[in-house]
């Protein structure tokens, strides 16, 4: 099936969306991106983008930090996304990857005085982490980049070297995922997920100043947990050893969705099985993203004509 991309201001075959080896972003990591999911609802024969406007708002914030000016407004970014998805015509879950990047073909590391551009592609995408059974995680030997190193408030391509170092270390040592500590030794987040834990019926997550990406799934879960499950929630620093004594731990993100953590640094989380609160949150999340909960349908953008 033909697959399309938005590249240099127009729709092209995905195969033809190519940058030069001299492109600044390729040399220096000077790009920022988003990962957006679209969920296929078989009953409604509809593909729903989840919180697409929030993703583009974050991406415009990332661009601002990187001194990239968007030629497209937020509405136009959404329109381009819909156009590519409609052209691709997928009838399964899809992952959308838009990027702003420094497109100048130039040597010299800087942010100012360079041309920039926008590109987008989309591919079918299943689970990123196991969502059926709990995963095994380790605390990474790599510290997380901080706000004064490479800010995580912006989803910057270059900062994902830090994530890749941690993920490969974990994977090659037999774990599913890495958990980062901040430079000052508090829990930050997973390599591509925000982290939650449950202790004595309270839902706890790291605050934004723990050098985390301001996750859209994280915000979604905090809202659903409060409004639907009536759970007390706390955003506060988490110590490494609090992970070891938590009743439940789970990781959340667009890719990861809601994934239970069953073991951290060889200590079982709770009894090692998926905890009841994690299970309730995961079920509710999947219902919401698929468009089965009317109250939250405003978070969804249908791709095909209704
Ligand atoms: N943290 C990092 C480092 C990530 O890459 C992601 C995935 N975008 C997340 C957290 C989760 O963010 P979101 O829920 O907005 O996808």
Overview of this structure, please?
This protein has helices at residues 24-28, 52-65, 74-88, 160-172, 216-227, 240-245, 276-289, and strands at residues 4-7, 10-13, 31-33, 36-41, 46-50, 94-102, 116-124, 135-143, 177-181, 187-190, 194-199, 202-205, 233-235, 248-253, 257-264, 267-268, 300-302. It has 306 residues and is an alpha+beta fold. Strand 4 (36-41) and strand 5 form a beta hairpin. 44% of the residues are buried. Helix 2 packs across helix 3. The chain has two domains: 4-124, D-amino Acid Aminotransferase, Chain A, domain 1 (2-Layer Sandwich); 135-289, D-amino Acid Aminotransferase, subunit A, domain 2 (D-amino Acid Aminotransferase, Chain A, domain 2). The model has no long low-confidence stretch (mean pLDDT 97). Strands 8, 9, 10, 11, 12, 13, 14, 15 and 16 form a nine-stranded mixed β-sheet that branches. It binds 4'-deoxy-4'-aminopyridoxal-5'-phosphate (PMP). The site of 4'-deoxy-4'-aminopyridoxal-5'-phosphate has 13 residues, from helix 5. Belongs to the class-IV pyridoxal-phosphate-dependent aminotransferase family. InterPro entries: Aminotrans_IV (IPR001544), Aminotrans_IV_CS (IPR018300), Aminotransferase-like (IPR036038), B_amino_transI (IPR005785), BCAT-like_C (IPR043132), BCAT-like_N (IPR043131), BCAT_family (IPR033939), Class-IV_PLP-Dep_Aminotrnsfr (IPR050571). It comes from Carboxydichorda subterranea.
């Amino acid at each position: 099936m033909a697959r399309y991309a938005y590249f240099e201001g127009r729709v092209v075959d995905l195969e033809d969306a190519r940058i030069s080896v001299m492109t600044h972003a390729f040399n220096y990591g000077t790009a920022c991106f988003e990962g957006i999911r679209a969920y296929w609802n078989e009953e409604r024969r509809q593909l729903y983008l989840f919180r697409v406007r929030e993703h583009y708002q974050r991406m415009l914030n990332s661009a601002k930090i990187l001194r990239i000016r968007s030629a497209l407004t937020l509405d136009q970014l959404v329109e381009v996304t819909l156009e590519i998805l409609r052209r691709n015509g997928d009838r399964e879950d899809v992952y959308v990857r838009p990027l702003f990047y420094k497109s100048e073909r130039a040597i010299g590391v800087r942010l100012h005085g360079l041309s920039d551009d926008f590109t987008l592609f989309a591919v079918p995408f299943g689970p990123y982490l196991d969502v059926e059974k709990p995963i095994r995680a380790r605390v990474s030997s790599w510290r997380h980049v901080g706000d004064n190193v490479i800010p995580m408030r912006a989803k910057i391509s270059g900062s994902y070297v830090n994530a890749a170092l941690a993920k490969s270390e974990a994977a090659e040592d037999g774990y599913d995922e890495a958990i980062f500590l901040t430079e000052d030794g508090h829990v930050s987040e997973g390599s591509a997920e925000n982290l939650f834990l449950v202790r004595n019926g309270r839902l706890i997550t790291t605050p934004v100043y723990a050098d985390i990406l301001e996750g859209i799934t994280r915000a979604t879960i905090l809202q659903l947990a409060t409004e639907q499950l009536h759970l007390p929630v706390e955003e506060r620093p988490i110590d490494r050893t609090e992970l070891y004594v938590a009743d439940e731990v789970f990781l959340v993100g667009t890719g990861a969705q809601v994934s239970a953590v069953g073991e951290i640094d060889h200590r079982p989380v709770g009894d090692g099985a998926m905890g009841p609160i994690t299970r309730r949150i995961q079920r509710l999340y999947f219902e919401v993203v698929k468009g089965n909960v009317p109250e939250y349908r405003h978070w969804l953008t249908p791709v095909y004509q209704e």
